[in-house]
Design brief:
64 residues; mainly alpha; 0% strand; elongated
């Protein structure tokens, strides 16, 4: 009976471990695909928007 119980616990641990590893791999894959799909000019546009926001915040602080 104790061997059966230990086998069940070991099987549950293995199943949980495998499912956790599988979920980690799924999270990493879309990031790589998204970078490949992005066009060359799109990255520069996003950076320009971020810089414009930073400059606007600086101007607001100077005005106060």
């Amino acid at each position: 009976m104790t061997k059966l119980l230990s086998m069940i616990v070991a099987a549950m641990f293995a199943a949980v471990s495998v499912s956790a590893i599988a979920q980690d791999k799924k999270k990493e894959a879309p990031k790589k695909e998204a970078k490949k799909e992005m066009k060359k000019g799109e990255g520069k546009k996003e950076e320009a928007k971020k810089e414009a926001k930073k400059e606007a915040k600086k101007e607001d602080k100077k005005g106060k």
